[in-house]
Write a structure and sequence with these properties.
RNA Polymerase Alpha Subunit, Chain A, domain 2; Ribosomal Protein L25, Chain P; 6-stranded mixed β-barrel; mainly beta; elongated; about 40% strand; 4 helices
């Protein structure tokens, strides 16, 4: 994947609102045993970089003044009304030091149970937790669903194939995908008549009781 670089400014800011009014997004970068660093970045520049990188590709911050910092996006906060990005949390990446992060799962191939038997593909997990060196990080992990040949088979974390330099941290027995059988047409339900339905009401609008029926029959 191409290297993704964005220009940022470093330094504390008096107010996040002021930063946003200037068309920028406040960012904070965390690292082990190091004080967090505060940055701000042009809104549109970050939006374009985030569309490419997501949370599973490294972004290089080109810090004003000549410094560079490799990071992963950890969290993005959005305005509940406008849905604009309003704050970003970053994790600093150090060369040669392993990182743990979530990588998206992309399902590929065809399932016989879906194509020929009319089943519905069901994914139970859309990302996988991994550990690796920054240089070995994958933007996404492909999982072939062709082994889902009927409604009784499933794919688990243990079925995911990754290079030897990547360690999957999720438990192997966690289900990630299945195929559910098609729903059978609902049988027509015959509703039995309610007792007393169709009876002729007596004077006053009330349905006659059993006793009243007998008395009427003997008259």
């Amino acid at each position: 994947m191409e290297q993704i670089t964005i220009q940022v400014k470093e330094g504390e800011y008096k107010s996040a609102k002021i930063v946003r009014r200037e068309g920028m997004i406040p960012m904070i970068c965390y690292a082990n045993q190091v004080e967090p660093r505060q940055f701000r970045v042009d809104y549109q520049n970050f939006r374009r970089a985030y569309l490419k990188a997501g949370k599973s590709s490294i972004i290089t911050l080109d810090v004003e003044g000549g410094d560079e910092q490799a990071v992963l996006v950890q969290a993005v906060q959005y305005d509940p009304v406008s849905d604009d990005m309003i704050h970003v949390d970053l994790m600093a990446i150090k060369k040669g030091q392993k990182i743990t992060t979530d990588v998206p799962i992309v399902f590929v191939g065809e399932s016989k149970a879906v194509k020929e038997d009319g089943g519905t593909f069901m994914s139970n997990k859309d990302k996988i937790h991994i550990e690796c060196l920054p240089k070995d990080l994958l933007h996404e992990i492909e999982v072939d669903i062709s082994s889902l040949v009927d409604f009784h088979t499933s794919l688990t974390v243990g079925d995911i194939k990754v290079p030897d330099n990547i360690t999957i941290l999720d438990a192997e027995d966690i289900s990630i995908a299945t195929v559910s059988a098609p729903r059978e047409e609902e049988e027509e339900v015959v509703v039995a008549p309610v007792e007393g339905e169709g009876e002729t009401p007596t004077e006053g609008g009330e349905t006659p009781t059993e006793g009243e029926k007998k008395e009427g029959a003997s008259e």
